[in-house]
Amino acid sequence: ADKDALAALLKYHVVPGKVMLSAAETSTPASVEGSDLNLVKTGNGLTVNGVAVAKADMQSGNGVVHSIETVLTIPVAAPAPTQNIVELATATTLNHLVTALEKAGLKAMFEGTDKYTVFAPTDAAFDAAVAALGEDSLATLLERADLAEILEYHVVAGETKAAALAAGDVMSAQGTNIPVTVDGMKKMVDGAEVTTADVMATNGVVHVINQVMLPPTLVDVLSADAEFSTLVTALTTANLTATFGYTKGGPMYTVFAPTNAAFTALIEGSADIADADALLALPNLADILKYHVVPRIEGAVTQLPSYWTAATLLTTANLTVVDPEEDLIVNGHAMIEHISAGNGDIYKIGAVLMPPPMDSTDGDTDPPMDSTDGDTDPVGSGTNGAVGYGLVVVFVAILCRVM
């Protein structure tokens, strides 16, 4: 029996094939004994189950030897998990996380059979997030409109153990990437440290982290895309960047984002805007930008009309959206691409939308009239692209399709 145990221990120090140090990667290869080893490659160094390789690449006729100064221990197989992610979080006193999942309507997602990787903030991390998000208490944090987005940013589809977390990005269930950094055995996700790894559940794995992560804001996403540099500069000039960051209550927005080419076309087609500096000096710059933003709408409707009028952050003017069953159109301009952010959605468009003139008699925007019959024109034109009345609820459904 002792010989068998010794043989198993020796086999645990061996992996099939010839792996030189230069070719080694962070991975969990199976040993000849059958149990996995945890290899972590950092620069020119390699650790095996946390033990550093002292001397590498000693070649022999049938392989290669890497010297270590500690005898590895065969891991004892963990018992099969019996709790799902919600039950496990409850049992490990991740109480605020469980409450948040319930508040956000996400609890059932982690009680099913689909597998997930959850980066689970501790209760202390949630308490610290109260002040970081400008809230008054944990109760108000849990009432934020963007709570579900924040929680989904802590979730990755499938089961990924800590050893398989490599430097780079992983796509979150929220729709934006989580940056992963590795420093030896330490794993960091968007600045949060994994303090307890590989807590297994029947439907995935939980990694406990020491802070609440926040997905990139609308401004973060726009700033990371060179195609929106003029828009970001305009938002900064108009003092609107803070509006689209994380603020108290977690308001969500949908931004119809003109590209740099759209702003160039506006300048070239306008006798009143000589160049980019003149654009940024427009007295109504903030109003123009607010006209591209509507509050994010959630929910579902069962009957969809073809048009809808959407109130913008410029309270005196609305946008009109048309759904021709292919490309969505806002004020006569097609939406080119949808991009997710932590506090809303971005739709790339190829034109700058200009607010319609005010009706001097009542302060409302005056829709353009069809010169032949006096009715509002049902098809927008020019930069205003206004659409007529009777446009009720299709924008709700349009936005919901990307939720």
What brief labels describe this structure?
seven-stranded mixed beta sheet, alpha+beta, disordered C terminus, single chain, elongated, 18 strands, about 400 residues
Helix/strand layout:
Layout: H1 2-11, E1 39-42, E2 45-48, E3 51-60, E4 63-68, H2 85-91, H3 95-103, E5 116-121, H4 123-132, H5 138-141, H6 147-152, E6 155-157, E7 168-171, E8 177-183, E9 186-189, E10 192-201, E11 204-209, H7 218-223, H8 229-237, E12 253-258, H9 260-268, H10 276-280, H11 285-290, E13 293-295, E14 307-311, E15 318-322, E16 329-330, E17 333-341, E18 344-349, H12 394-400
Parallel strand pairs: 5-11, 12-18
Antiparallel strand pairs: 1-2, 2-3, 3-4, 5-6, 7-8, 8-9, 9-10, 10-11, 12-13, 14-15, 15-16, 16-17, 17-18
Q: Would you report the number of β strands?
A: 18
- The proportion of strand residues reads 15-25%
Averaged pLDDT, please? 86
The end-to-end span amounts to 59 Å
Instruction: Give the helix proportion (percent range).
Output: 10-25%
In short:
About 20% of the residues lie in helices and about 25% in strands.
In words, what does this structure look like?
By secondary structure, the protein is an alpha+beta fold. The protein contains 12 helices and 18 strands. The chain has helices at 2-11, 85-91, 95-103, 123-132, 138-141, 147-152, 218-223, 229-237, 260-268, 276-280, 285-290, 394-400; strands at residues 39-42, 45-48, 51-60, 63-68, 116-121, 155-157, 168-171, 177-183, 186-189, 192-201, 204-209, 253-258, 293-295, 307-311, 318-322, 329-330, 333-341, 344-349. The strands form 3 sheets. A 7-stranded mixed sheet has the order 6-5-11-10-9-8-7. Strand 10 and strand 11 (204-209) form a beta hairpin. It is elongated and about 90 Å long. The N and C termini lie far apart (59 Å).
